[in-house]
């Protein structure tokens, strides 16, 4: 069992006298900044000039500065801007102001793992990574609970990096749920692997294949949407609550029998795992990271944008939109307030 920490292991006093600059006010940024403020910490938000979120952060009672000013002000600088822009922003607006004994913090290890950011040796480098979207980090904190978090320390310059990281996670509410220790290396590689092969890449392609198969066989797209896409959440909620056994308990025996018979037909285990190992190898040797960095730096996101446009035009997205508009099923319309 990996090492776990809870509220009893975290001491918020390690943040006493420390000024925390939260860089970014998106999904994670707003949650960290507001939760830390409500936990009694001294916080400011760092944003680019002209940011659409500047007024929103101020309206929420937070002090807002430019990224450079915030980095200069803060003893702990938490990087909560998009991973692909962090390195440039770090070089220009953060690195010049980092002082010995400061801490540089992350919610994902990409830029440290792939050496896009190489912090000076005199600063602590830690990770406080909620395993959930920022809006859930905020809503669970407000309701007295928390989202489980990962903690990792890449550099322990002060000798207190773990204590500070755990205090930070307690400040955002994560200690209420549990904190698991990891490394920047493992968090980055497993996170990329999970989202590419199972959570985002895997799930979207699986649903798309199911939807297309039914529609091409002449069934109504609305039926295909319900059976292959809408019900995914209901099934995942059951697995999330009690494992695959809980799902199998709730579904019919016919569905469970079909799971055993047809699951391995559409996902041949050894072949799928061989393909997954190839994806993992690209993550481990930096091929994927290099491709993503190039996509942003030299290719103007042409592949990324064309795939996004293509998906928006796919009938499963259009049928889904139409159905969601015409049915009442308790879904949140506003993604920003969605519960997960
Ligand atoms: N979202 C999640 O569920 C999740 C979960 C765990 C970890 N993380 C990690 O958390 C970090 C933040 O992700 P996020 O999803 O919260 O990001 P996000 O919602 O996309 O928010 C991005 C923020 O970065 C700012 N920003 C973008 N480009 C910038 C630039 N060039 N200069 C200055 N500010 C810039 C944006 O500023 P404006 O306000 O001006 O637009 C915005 O406030 C990432 O490392 C991510 O991997 C995310």
UniProtKB/TrEMBL annotation:
Q: Does the keyword Thylakoid apply?
A: no
Residues bound to Mg(2+) 1 = 191, 195
Catalytic machinery residues: 108
| Pfam families per record | KARI_C (PF01450), KARI_N (PF07991)
Q: Which domain of life does the UniProt lineage start with? A: Bacteria
Q: Which UniProt keywords apply?
A: Amino-acid biosynthesis, Branched-chain amino acid biosynthesis, Magnesium, Metal-binding, NADP, Oxidoreductase
Q: List cellular component terms (GO).
A: cytosol
In which residues is substrate bound?
252
Cofactors required: Mg(2+)
Q: Where is the KARI C-terminal knotted domain?
A: 183-330
- Protein's UniProt keywords contain Heme: no
Q: Relay the cofactor remark from the entry.
A: Binds 2 magnesium ions per subunit.
Q: Which of the seven top EC classes does this enzyme belong to?
A: oxidoreductase
Q: GO: which molecular function terms?
A: ketol-acid reductoisomerase activity; magnesium ion binding; NADP binding
* UniProt family annotation: Belongs to the ketol-acid reductoisomerase family.
Family matches, as NCBIfam families: ilvC, PRK05479.1, PRK13403.1
This chain belongs to which protein, by name?
A: Ketol-acid reductoisomerase (NADP(+))
Q: Which organism is it from?
A: Dysosmobacter segnis
Q: Which gene encodes it?
A: ilvC
């Amino acid at each position: 069992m990996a090492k776990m920490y809870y509220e009893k292991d975290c001491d918020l006093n390690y943040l006493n006298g420390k000024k925390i600059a939260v860089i970014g006010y998106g999904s994670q940024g707003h949650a960290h900044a507001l939760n830390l403020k409500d936990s009694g910490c001294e916080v400011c938000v760092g944003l680019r000039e002209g940011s659409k979120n500047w007024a929103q952060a101020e309206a929420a009672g937070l002090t807002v500065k430019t990224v450079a000013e915030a980095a200069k002000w803060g003893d702990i600088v938490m990087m909560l801007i998009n991973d692909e822009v962090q390195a440039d922003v770090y070089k220009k607006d953060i690195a010049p102001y980092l002082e010995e004994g400061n801490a540089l913090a992350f919610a994902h290890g990409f830029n440290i793992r792939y050496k896009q950011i190489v912090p000076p040796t005199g600063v602590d480098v830690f990770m406080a990574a909620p395993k959930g979207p920022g809006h859930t980090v905020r809503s669970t904190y407000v309701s007295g609970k928390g989202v489980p978090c990962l903690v990792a320390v890449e550099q322990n310059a002060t000798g207190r990096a773990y204590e500070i990281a755990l205090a930070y996670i307690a400040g955002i509410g994560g200690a209420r749920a549990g904190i698991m220790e990891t490394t920047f290396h493992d968090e980055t590689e497993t996170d990329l692997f999970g989202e590419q092969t199972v959570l985002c890449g895997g799930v979207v392609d699986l649903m798309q294949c199911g939807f297309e198969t039914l529609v091409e066989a002449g069934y109504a797209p609305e039926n295909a949407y319900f059976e292959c896409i809408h019900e995914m959440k209901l099934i995942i909620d059951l697995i999330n609550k009690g494992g695959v056994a809980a799902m199998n308990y709730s579904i019919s025996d016919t569905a469970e029998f079909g799971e055993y018979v047809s699951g391995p037909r559409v996902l041949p285990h050894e072949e799928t795992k061989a393909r997954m190992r190839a994806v993992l190898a690209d993550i481990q040797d930096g091929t994927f990271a290099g491709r993503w960095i190039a996509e942003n730096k030299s290719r103007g996101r042409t592949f990324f944008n064309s795939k996004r446009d293509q998906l928006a035009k796919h009938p499963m997205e259009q049928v889904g939109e139409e159905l969601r508009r015409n049915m009442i099923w308790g879904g949140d319309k506003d993604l920003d307030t969605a519960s997960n």
